[in-house]
Every structure is written in structure tokens, then in C-alpha cells.
UniProtKB/TrEMBL annotation:
Belongs to the acyl-CoA dehydrogenase family. The lineage of its organism: Bacteria, Bacillati, Actinomycetota, Actinomycetes, Kitasatosporales. Keywords: FAD, Flavoprotein, Oxidoreductase. GO terms for molecular function: acyl-CoA dehydrogenase activity; flavin adenine dinucleotide binding. Its cofactor is FAD. Residues 6-118 form the Acyl-CoA dehydrogenase/oxidase N-terminal domain. The keyword Oxidoreductase applies. SUPFAM superfamilies: Acyl-CoA dehydrogenase C-terminal domain-like, Acyl-CoA dehydrogenase NM domain-like. This is Acyl-CoA dehydrogenase. InterPro entries: Acyl-CoA_Oxase/DH_mid-dom_sf (IPR046373), AcylCo_DH-like_C (IPR036250), AcylCo_DH/oxidase_C (IPR009075), AcylCoA_DH/ox_N (IPR013786), AcylCoA_DH/ox_N_sf (IPR037069), AcylCoA_DH/oxidase_NM_dom_sf (IPR009100). PANTHER family: ACYL-COA DEHYDROGENASE, ACYL-COA DEHYDROGENASE FADE28. Residues 254-380 form the Acyl-CoA dehydrogenase/oxidase C-terminal domain.
Amino acid sequence: MDTRLTAEQDEIRRTLRELLHKRCGAEELRAAVDSPAGYDPALWSALADQLGLPGLALPESYGGVGCSVTELALACEETGRALAPSPLTATSVLAAPLILALGTEAQRAELLPRLAAGTRTATLAVPGPALAAALALTGGNSGFSAGGGRAGGVQARHTAAGWRLYGQVDQVLDGHSAGLLVVAAHTGGFARSRTLLFLVAGDAEGVVRARQTALDATRPQGRVQLRDVAAELLGTPDADVLPALAALGDTAAAVLAAEAVGAAGRALEKTVEYVKQREQFGRAIGSFQAVKHRLADVYVQVQAARSAACYAAWATAHGELVGGLALAQALEALRVAAAEGIQLHGGIGFTWEHEAHLYFKRASGDELLFGPVHRLRAHAADAARLFEGNEVTV
């Protein structure tokens, strides 16, 4: 593994950082999360038009840039630094790879170019608490079911006119605004029960959506109600959905790890800047040995998480499955960096007006969506057979 950035990767990082510095400052961030969509459509268009960000990891044959997951992770490290609210995670990390992996050639040709161009957004509609299970991040997903009926979730029914979906999905990333929904639904009844994925237009008849309050406002979430909605099966009836979701989970974890590392690094930078300026007893508090030690510990943890995230991004592109472990380390580093930042900012760090709490909420919100750190690690240990003969329990 060569940790040096190529000229192309360095250009992606530099250009994206400059754009986000100009277009996603503190005021712009708060205005975006308070908008109905939860993000700035103009910024999303700029990311798509100037950088091709939505299609960065999609093949050129479908309108993408043709880069690998490594470049997407590198880009997400920069969006993580700025906590930039955008449909990138839902569209390019979750939905588009599933369409590429499972979709028919006609579905790919119709949907992927628009997703790559950023003219349409998409999301994976799996109940928020079940997302980590569906993606096999906290355990195997062989027992995962999209639910349906009284159990909640979504039920699919095949009729002479095609597939119909009914049910409700909560805590869907960008579920209130995405133009395309990739819905996990339960079908086949009890005896032949299975989970399939379906394509539903966000504005289809019978779709009722609303934005939900989320701990992390920079990751807007929505409730999706499907009231006997016409849907198109993604791929073929014999598509192997659960393995595809598990493969997506490891890739998504690697990208999310890079994003969390970017946020952790920026939180640490902001804290270091502050302790150099804040004076107490006639000297900057950053000169106190206790403060230096605390920040040094955070720095070591962030750098270790960055190394793990870099390796995961490279390894994922080469067929290795280490994304979950890197995500655990990155989320822990972000939580520690954000908590120390709040503490060392003193009274101002606890205020709503300051940015410090946004980083802490990102760490906590991602753990709620993608799995707590201890369960991510336990599953990684089980998958690696680290404790062979001794079951890891949570």
C-alpha cells in the first residue's frame, strides 16, 4: 500500500477543500440545515458540475468519473471536515452502488447517469435502527427482514399489474427529499419470506414523506410512508440482495470512516486554534501542560484513525473487508475529539451558537445509524475469527 496521494487525488482534495471553504462556512451550514431540504441545492450543483462528486466512483460508461472507492473516501474526508450537509452519502455511498450491483442494464442506463450528474438524488430506505443490521455492520445480515404489516417496515405484493408496496420507513437519510427511493421490502409471506429491493419515485402516487427531527441536523432524515405504491423491482426476482447489502456495508463503512476522520481532524484543529488564543492567569491556556497532554492524546487517536481509514479505503478497492473496524476507530476518535473540544472551549463550547456541538452530534448520530463502536468492533473480531472458540457477546 502506497500512502502517497496521486496528482489526481491531491487535486480532488485541494479543489474540494477550497470550494467548501468558500461555500460551506458556519453561517452557510446553519442556513442549509434549517432549509426544508436540509442542504443547499446550489452547493450540491456546484459539487456535481465542478467536481463530478456524485459520480466519482461510478463507471464512465454510466456518466461517472471512473475513480475507485479510494477517491470517494478522500472526497468524503473533506466533506466531513466541513460537516457539509448534502445528498452525497445517501446517493453516492448507499443507493448508486446498489443500482450498479443489482440493477438490470436498462435500469443502470436509465438511472445512473442522472445520479452521476447530480440532477437526481437517491437514498436507501431501510428503517434507521435496522440500517446497520441490513448492511451487516454489527453482525451477519442473514436474518435481516424488511418487516411489513404489523411488524412495521414495508411489505411487497405482486399483482397482475406489477409490484405494490405498503408500509412505513423511519429515519431514512434524505428520505424526505430524495428523488428516487431504493426500498427494502419483505415479500413471499411466511413460508417463502425474503427481502427484495424496489425502485420508487419520490413523487409517486401514494408516497407520503416528511422530514424528521434528527440528533445530527447535518444528516437530515425523513419518514417515508408507502400507501399501496407502484414499484419496480431492482434487478431480477432471483437477485441475491443480502450479500449485496453486506458488500455495500463494508464499502460504505470505509467511506464513512474517512468522513469521520475529516470531522475529527477539523474539530481538533479548531480546539488547538482556540487554546492558543484563550488566556488564563496571564497566559494562553494551550501553554499549560495538562492541556497539551490532552490534545496530544487526541492527536494520536485521530492520526491512528486516519491511518485505519486510509487502509480501509485502499483495501476495499482491492477486495478486503476491513471497513467496519476502521469506522469504529474513526467514530471513537471523532467522539473524543469533539468532547475534548467542548471541554477545552469552556463555557462557549456548550452554547448552541458555537460549532463544537455539531461535531459531537455527528459522532453520536453516526453511531445511532451505523452501529455503536463496541458492536462494530465485536463484529469485526468475529469476522476475523479473532477469538476462535470464544464467542464475542455484546
